[in-house]
Structures
1.
Amino acid sequence: MFKTLFQNQPIISNSVFLQSVFLIALLVLGKADPMAIVFAYIFETVIIGLIHVVKLFYVVAYNDPEKGKSKIIDYCSIPFFLIHYGAFVGIQSIIIYTGFAINDDRFSTSLSFSNFIDILNLEGFNMVVFSIIVSHLFSFYFYFLKEKKYKNENLGAYMVKPYLRIFIQQFLAIIPFFFLIFMDSVSVLAAVLLIIMRTILDFYLAAIAKNPDKINKLAKRIISKNKPEELSDIEQSLKVFFEE
């Protein structure tokens, strides 16, 4: 079973699987509060955004700007990303947090700083967040820096790259909320379900990025019939959008 799972899988996919096993082990052994998993996944969107800013700097630095533009304009797009991404993540996170706070007496819906401290004090939260940070830094080095993925990347496509993943991820974080409605607290089962579905998501998106046929079909649905010459560019953008 394990041989089949790891066969022909890149090192990043293996790290995603191992991290999932680690998180489930924390839950089963009682070393992590199920809510720590939920809030850590919400907080992960911040980690993704910060690392992505560094990636954007690399993309701008190692690629020539479009004709008629200067690199200063490209660099200025990075603060724009921070503002837009921060607002997108912030609004989603507040909505999700408020939904949990309404049904969990340990948290207040006032959005005060003390709630943030309460989240930090959840059992296992620091370990879970640390494992997530390590996983992303691992991916950043081995997949982005070592493979020099920043070369010949389209800045426009790379700007929107994280949105699909974090949108689905934050949507998945809502799943334990339904358990909370019918139970006194988020159960270990709900947290494990969240981890499993998040892992499946990572593998599925990676599989799409590596499948030229699926990318081609998606590109043909997007492209205008009057502009077939754009097919190659759209395929490349979609690959960037789905891959790690």
2.
Amino acid sequence: MYNGSPAVCSECAARSMRPLAEHHCVICSQSLSVAGANCRNPICNWTQLQRSFTRVGAVALFAAPLTNPVKAFKYDQGKAGWAVIFGRLIVGWMNNHAEEMAGIDLVIGNPSAADRKPLQHIEAIMVAAHAEDTTGRWPITTPDSPVLVKLQETPKSAGEGARWSAKMDAARAHAAALELQQSVRGKRILLVDDVFTTGATFHTVGKLLTEAGAAEVRGLVLARVPFAGS
């Protein structure tokens, strides 16, 4: 489990995890019935300026066998070892999508609070990703010099099926608790998170970064939650 590499983990993921649909939204990676179909995710109908991010890629869909490991890593004590695997998957995605990484100046995690229990899960993934990028190919922020930090815990993001307004409220509270530690002016940023449901958090954190001068905010997640029936 821990003796692989980004290439090995990506190959295994391609065989076992549920991939993105052949036809998927170019903005949020949601499955589409046919190429060019209108995405049902409301935020994809906003302008790029309104969204505050350009697009979000995903390693796989949030479905078996990825669902339980992600949940266990986030919420169960003693599952921190998954950070190594997830970090490799993030680096593997970047290696396999070099054209989509073109122009990215900073790769940063969407931060969690220092007192988050059982661990700061995104930070753990980013530490692993930084270590797994052995050649320094990608501009992954040095773990001890974060671009963004979260000053305090906020209410958990509203789960799947919750009202859009509840998700947006949670996302705004999350963004309000963030603090920039470095300048992002003129930078093209890849913001990494674990799961994408509606894009509310990418919107609010993207707004924070673009208002601070970032030239672009793109996203990457381990898992994209599919719409029911997808």
